[in-house]
């Protein structure tokens, strides 16, 4: 058996609730896979990362996948000198700092004073805001701890566990796991979401927000919308069977 936790998006209270449910209703000693998107949109990405770092330090068997939002934050931290704030996988052209993506809220959680949404939506897209961007880059350099950067660098693209493969967004159907490309693992929606073929192991993923955990026989989506203020999902998985952990006990997630 193995546990999985869906997208967190800076929701520290929801992370603590999910961990409490695993301790109370989960399988003792079973590992926990976190499906990525620890940052952005929510109020306290810093506290989420701090809490996740503390788990393995306390002996917890926790596995951390990288989400597309984590990659955007990591790219910002990696390219502090040249101010890279865009991700080529974002078709709209919005940068990580755009309010729709939530990078500004992540920086604010680290104590960085960020400009208003109107300015944030233009940073990295329109000329005339170089000073604002330079200030954010300098502040991030000073305030984001090296341990948090190391945590993001150490996240995995996928995790195999017998009857399941865990990944943030999904898989390109028909492509072997070792040939999958990073952009698909972190960003894919179509054709993955509506492809009925058997991928071999059950694909456990997040990335695409749904109202409740969703089992589609060949895949299990645990992104229950924390990025939009909804509860985080903690699940227990055994083969292709899955249960949502709730205050009332284990609730089957049925296909």
Q: Which labels suit this protein?
A:
globular, 30% helix, 255 residues, 8 helices, 6-stranded mixed beta sheet, 5-stranded mixed beta sheet, alpha/beta
Describe the structure concisely for a colleague.
The chain is an alpha/beta fold and 255 residues long. The protein contains 8 helices and 11 strands.
H/E element order? EHEHEHHHHHEEHEEEEEE
Largest sheet: 6 strands, mixed
**Percentage of residues in strands:** 15-25%
Radius of gyration: 18 Å
Q: Helicity range of the residues?
A: 25-40%
Q: What is the SS-derived class?
A: alpha/beta
Tally of helical runs: 8
- The stretches of 5 or more residues where confidence is low (pLDDT under 50) are none
N- and C-termini, Cα separation? 19 Å
Overall spatial form: globular
Mean pLDDT: 93
For the largest beta sheet, what order do the strands appear in spatially?
3-2-1-9-10-11
User: How many strands appear in the DSSP assignment?
Assistant: 11
Written description of the protein model:
The chain has helices spanning 12-25, 45-57, 68-78, 103-109, 117-120, 130-143, 146-153, 182-187; strands at 2-5, 32-34, 62-64, 158-161, 164-167, 202-205, 214-215, 219-221, 234-238, 241-246, 249-252. With 255 residues, it is of the alpha/beta class. The two termini are 19 Å apart. It has a 6-stranded mixed β-sheet with strand order 3-2-1-9-10-11. The chain has a 5-stranded mixed β-sheet with strand order 4-5-6-8-7, with no helix packed on it. The model has no long low-confidence stretch (mean pLDDT 93). Helix 1 links the parallel strand 1 (2-5) and strand 2.
